[in-house]
User: Fold these one by one.
Assistant:
Number 1:
Amino acid sequence: MKIAIAGAGYVGLVTGACLADFGHDVVCIDKDEGRIAALRRGEIPIFEPDLAGLVATNLGAGRLSFTTDLAGAVAGAEVVFIAVGTPSRRGDGHADLSYVYAVAREVALSVSGFTVVATKSTVPVGTGDEVARIIAAANPEADVAVVSNPEFLREGAAIEDFKRPDRIVVGIEDERARVVMTEVYRPLYLNQAPLVFTGRRTAEMIKYAANAFLAMKITFINEMADLCEAAGADVQQVARGMGLDNRIGSKFLHAGPGFGGSCFPKDTQALVRIGEDFGSPMRLVETTIAINEQRKRAMARRVIAACGGEVRGKVIGVLGLTFKPNTDDMREAPSIDIVRGLLDKGARVVAYDPQGMVAARELIEGLEFGESAYDVAEGADALVLVTEWNEFRSLDLARLKDAMAAPVLVDLRNVYRHDEVARHGFAYTSIGRPAGA
Ligand code: NAD
């Protein structure tokens, strides 16, 4: 099939590379000329495991190409995916749909023959109706079926998630699109991935409902962690005991510094706004957002407490900056609030992250950088483990202690065991675990 994808970011690029790998003929379009030029040279503008190899293979096989020319790419396509960003609109938290609508207008003028326009971007309920209206208004001749095909991939495991999804959701209002979208995903369908067809509005809602639920689940276990600390219970064992219940499930029950990233914060905000627009408040989600915001700031206070209540003039080493491991994505990462909270109280903060330092340099004024965990530990009054990259999972504790000015370890991801760290002479703080766990 001939497929065009507008937006070559995390979602568009992964979608393009995977669909090309299935054997489709894919053109990825981006308005960012530098990004397209780099991609044509085989350089990948984001860090995502295995993506570079997949892009190179499919570029080489002639199934994948990159362009800034949307009109040319769309003209021959049977399916056009919209995978541009839908960030929080400045000021009010609504999803900013201007990029989606701009693509819809351009697509309308270039389609030829029956074309499915599938929105992969996360968009509020009713956006598909507006995309259809925009296309019809811009080109009354266009024969288009607008589909909602939300994406559920996780950064850091995006290719695996795309190729082995739990489900594929496709919201349609035009039966002709069912055949086309089944053909797009046929290689996955053969692997038994459930293809869930719904109405378009329902598909749009499923994406927000799923993300908000996961954000709530994380926030629930984070609050439980605080209660466990106060009551002398161990949140990790609580999570395990809960998660073994199939009705609950063990995923997203890891207590930590609060959720971040490019999706949960903006999608929970947008769902609250959608609820307001429809006069149907999303109170659980509102509370989830508020708790999470407070939590990120509380993490800086936790570090300060571990340092004896004062960090002015002290050096704090930070391990990990991205919102989770295996990505370079710094959007809304809890590290931003934590580092700012420490800088505000007069600390010097030196951080190391395997992939996030380029983006962090732009985002956090005053933050300094080291070249490794051990480099960051040099002369530090405390080390804070913020993101659980694999390389932070089995650090040489004796070497760290020797390098540091004071042996204080604040482990916001519960990577280490208390007894192991204490044996090396560290004062150890983790999340929701009593001393000794
Ligand atoms: P991104 O910011 O990484 O990429 C968006 C790309 O679209 C950019 O490269 C931008 O230059 C390009 N673009 C913007 N306007 C354009 C236009 N008119 N024509 C061509 N290109 C244009 O965004 P992302 O993280 O890939 O997210 C895209 C959408 O997918 C969002 O709605 C997001 O919520 C959703 N989503 C993201 C993830 C994720 O993990 N990142 C997962 C599921 C869903």
Note: The domain at 2-198 is CATH 3.40.50.720 (Rossmann fold).
Number 2:
Amino acid sequence: MIDPSSISPDSATQRTIGTVAIRWHGHQLELLDQRLLPEEERWLAMTDATGVADCIRDMVVRGAPAIGISAAYGVALAARSLMEETWREALAEAVAVLAASRPTAVNLFWALRRMETVAGSCETLVEAQQRLTEAAEAIHAEDLAANLAMADHALSVMDEDKPFSVLTHCNTGALATGGYGTALGVIRRLHETGRLERVYADETRPWLQGSRLTAWELSREGVPVTLNADGAAAWIMAQGSVRWVIVGADRITANGDVANKIGTYSLAVLARHHGIRFMVVAPSSTVDMTLASGTEIPIEEREGTEVKQIRGAVLAPESVDVFNPVFDVTPASLIDAIVTEQGVIEQPDAERMAKVFLPG
Ligand code: MRU
């Protein structure tokens, strides 16, 4: 049964922002436990930074922007329980605990740096408590605003004259962000404007963000979605109705290389082969201009049990070795457009990235 209040419009824009995954109550952070979807909608309440870090590490909350937003609230929560004499050191420890939760999505480190800058400019603990809360709320609200802006920018470069299909990977929707979504926000907007024929959602092995989250998020809102096994993507592209592959990002480097969910790189290769355009949609908090190229991005590897089992059901011999990188890097040369809230960078390279992200 759909709870209509969970698919609420943003009060500023009146646009439907999708399924809410992060709720902030001033004294506690509530996270929708995404490990249990789609069977169960259970909220977990966090009151300290360690709890938030555990939720990020264990995938209660996931998706680059949502990780950054949650970490920012984690710092705000940490500040609430500190003592005047030692709050700066204790806050730095909380930031370190949050920073150690997951390595690839740069939004985490971006949000923590922003929170540290705010803390560094505060004279007293009381001031820090107030301003860190405001900063976390601002990061949350800005992410939603960025998603709405990106959807508009993205549509401006999609010149198809009749409704078309797209293919997406992982979950980049309201569940992964402050609301609406990055790649899924663009897909939502295509649907809202009558330009979407169908979205093919890769199931996204091994964690199944596509089948458990994207298919759920879209189908409960009436967006036409077809779930497919990851291995079916080439065959779907060969049928001819998919015009764009649209994905999110966890880190974009100075030359336009993109780290995103494992399997994204193979989609980019397939798209090029089939003459299908490839779009990456991410807020500028995902851009890391300190890294020259994707080879420098730390790629998270998770436990082999994520591949060998699904919710305890055994899928492989217990003793087999597993390689489980959960992100890959798509070279900029395979990307037709990177969309941020600042606009669209077509055929990204170091020069075009620098024009937007290193102005002057
Ligand atoms: O491991 P996850 O689920 O955190 O990975 C998520 C992705 O790779 C998303 O595509 C990316 O974070 C963009 S979410 C708007």
Note: Residues 159-357 form a domain with the Rossmann fold fold (CATH 3.40.50.10470).
Number 3:
Amino acid sequence: YTGKTGSELLTENIKKLKVQDYQQVPVAVNEDASIYDAITTMFLEDVGTLFVVNEHSCLTGVLSRKDLLRASLGQQRLNEIPVHIIMTRMPNITVCRKNDSLLEAALKLINKQIDGLPVVKDTEKGLEIVGRITKTSMTKALVELTEENRFD
Ligand code: ADP
């Protein structure tokens, strides 16, 4: 018997959760893709955050739903404007890595007030995108922490 309270055990278990066990598939578009293409991709792939990559498939930006809505307002030529004009760009992208704790990632989402983070791997050419952590990842983790609450 460890003498630990239920809440101490819960905290320990939460801290053990890793990004790699909750990450989802990332969806990326090229920097030269048009805003129109990005909107189409967001609908077809059913994601709320798109990552933007360069010719080396390395992370250069992020596009949220509101970034695309804002760019669309009163704009006729969505087919002609590349996403790199409107994206949030490196180095201002908040990222996480697969071995990070899920709690750290959750704190980044809260502190930066964003919906998603790219899970990245460091390479010589830049950051390769290997996954995606979102508020949905956090909801799933919460449910999984209590076995009897599995409804799926
Ligand atoms: P929305 O804008 O649809 O509410 P977010 O809250 O995720 O969605 O995004 C808010 C702003 O933060 C957007 O301009 C977006 O480009 C930017 N953003 C989203 N994710 C990240 C991230 N991981 N790092 C830096 N900026 C981000």
Note: Residues 17-146 form a domain with the CBS-domain fold (CATH 3.10.580.10).
Number 4:
Amino acid sequence: AAALFCVLPLIGCSGVQSALDPAGGDASRIYWLTMTMTVGGILIFLSVTSLLLYAIFAPPERRAWLGSRRTIIYGGLAFPIITLSALLPYGLIVMRDSDVPKAGALPIEVIGEQYWWRVRYPADGDRVAFSTANEIIVPVGRPIAVSVTAADVIHSFWIPNFGGKIDMIPGRINRLNFTAERPGIYRGVCAEFCGDQHARMAFDVIALEPAAFETWRTEQAKPAQDPEVPLLARGRELFRAGGCGSCHAVRGTEANGQFGPDLTHVGSRRTIGAGQFPNNIGTLAGWIANTQHIKPGVRMPSYGSLTGEDLRALAGYLESLR
Ligand code: CUA
């Protein structure tokens, strides 16, 4: 029963945000280091506890060897020195080369901001550069070279299924490399306390088959389409007249603000609010009207004075940007 109780917490250890369910990069090396340390630590703890009980309860003549010089030298000095000396190179090997980009790697730049993620795909071969937010799409099998920095305070970039954390520091570029080994949706988080909404600063990492990734990249590089449906055209006009374009860019329109997330293809993203809600007209409308209630402290004000119909038009327009 005790063993079962100890194993129960491990049930929650697989899934979209778990260092114990590696999907590429350094994650599996970190996983095995964790397992080695945990199992080794348990074995050492059990041995020491057994010796302690033996020392307390065994008859004096049978436990005399415990105090011998030989036991102290081998058990108290040699064993810890050898064990710790072996763990040091193991740990160093696990961390080795994780910041050196591999040949042919896909470059991606991620900038941590309070409280969201600016994601840039720089020009790559004949592919043009574009920006997105709160979502990193990667092809399976191709090395990814992520360079991270921050715009305001220190954040930390962590995708548990792909490797360790890396600090995002204003004015400095840090690098992290990984290769997604299987398609899927994974979750990344900010791992450094960065303000009121630190806990609500997440992002999706979506690993696609290479062909699907190329399709996605081609679509993202295109400018936004102007809506034809009257309601959505009204939403576009509200977006323009409301000054949304002074903070947000929608390529192909007059909106070219650089302060907030690029919304050119916001409708194609899985979630909004930095991984907080599924992306649909309802959550978009709720977000626009209540940002300061949902995530107090974000830079975007609540637009609570919009009528229901205006909100529907505006959210519908954003949702149509695919
Ligand atoms: Cu950004 Cu915590």
Note: The chain has three domains: 23-95, 106-221, 230-320.
